[in-house]
Amino acid sequence: MKQIILDFETTSLDTDIADIVEVGIIDAVSKSPIFASRVKPAKPLSDKSKSFLGLDDSDLEVAISQRTMLKLIKDILNHSSELIIYNAAYDYNLLIALYGRVLGEDWSHANVTCAMEIYRQYLGVEKWVKLPNTSGMDGHSAIADCISTANLLTKIGYLKEDDTLIKLDF
To answer: What is the reported pTM?
Structure first.
């Protein structure tokens, strides 16, 4: 079992109505992609979403459905020892909501880590902290955010290159 990093790009910041439009999952230490896909939302993108994501509805026409994506990533998530998400308060809650809303299932992961909380504590600040783009990739994408999260956690000592997880005590 391994530590994985997950990120979503979504249509809204409201987990009650948001759909995922892109998912990325990487191995936290090797930074190798495990799963990446665009996902077709249930409704058209808002102008705000189009602007932020750099996508329009035609970019998502042939993408996999929310239902298919949730089924595909479930096995990956269930076989990970730790699920690391930069903004777990949003992405993890959205994931739980979508499993209920789309699949009619209850789902949770036993070991979820919020990378932003670790980074916030490392910096000694109490507010939300934007993820720095350290992926070396152009644009905004789920995989780029996963790689940036892994780079950040390695830089501050939470993850080690030799596959050893370090838990920081604050």
So the answer is: 0.89
